Amino acid sequence: MLNFHLINVVLCDCVSVVLGQNGWSVTYTTQSICALKGSTVDLSCSFRYPRGHKVTSTFWFTEWGTEDIGLDPEYAGHVEYHGDKEKDCTLRITDLRERDSSTYWFRLLTDQEGGTYTGSPGVTLSVTGLQVKVTGGHQDKTLTCSTTCTLTDNPTYIWYKNGQHLDESTSPQYKSSVSSNYIDGYSCAVKGQEDLHSPAVCVQGQDCNRVTYTKRRICVLKGSTVAISCTYVGYNRVKSSLWFSPKQSASWTNKLTPEDLTRDPGYAGRVEYAGRESETYEGPSSLRITDLREEDSAEYRFPFKTQNFEWGHSFPGTTLSVTGNTTLYDTTVNHIELQEKINEPSC
């Protein structure tokens, strides 16, 4: 049986299913998958067909989509068929969106009369984001890292308070006492998928400190220019702020003070900030990097300080990928047509 390969996803109801007749069969390694929005998942399966048949076509389809999701514009650039026409029918879906939630079936066609077979019951994919839910009274708040489908495989939850790493637990509930301070904001993530964290939420009212990144992942071409942006809220006036990358120092840890990118020799003359000098309560901040190099591929974060508060620097930011390649890819799972995407990065 083909092993189920998982990339940034959590599995549910891991039961192998084999259905078939007269030499036909499709084996789905699992019937149900719960994956985080923005992650990548492999729908793994294997198939068999009668002797004397030659497979002419293989494809996946959904309960609501077209006969071949490789032909569906909704999946353009998001699906890759990693199988073959012999026995492997693995489908990879990247950068998952909530609308990708569906049941997926695999179908094969051969050169013989009646040579069509669809594997049932398919794979049910549920895509969810993370959200911090706050319950309880004024003095006894409970925080829960909530999802719309149950994450199994014993995930470890990571908690952040005011942008700083706080705690890790196998329980989706934060077990320690919760601050009742109106300026404190909390967020959660699943270990190994920290860039898919929840938005920060206030535990008292709506006026807590927080940072929200415009995009969590950006992919651009070598030599181009990129703007990485976020919006911050400081309950007191922001006195200072900076952009940095944990990649700057091999010995960097959450306990060290991050270094301003403008002081990094590797970025000399190539970075500039917008919004960093204004002493405001809130607003946008943008990091602009010109003449991008592949070694600029890293995660970029934004911490700020007020007179009596500091937004920590362990909270995940925006991940930048710089590539020198354009994409040459199949527009369909069945390799019917090739199309070159000019000036479009391959990541």
UniProtKB/TrEMBL annotation:
Pfam families: Ig_CD22. Residues 1-20 form the signal peptide. Coiled coil: none annotated. Residues 121-204, 209-300 form the Ig-like domain. Keywords: Signal. The keyword Signal applies. This is Ig-like domain-containing protein. InterPro entries: Ig-like_dom, Ig-like_dom_sf, Ig-like_fold, Ig_CD22, Ig_sub.
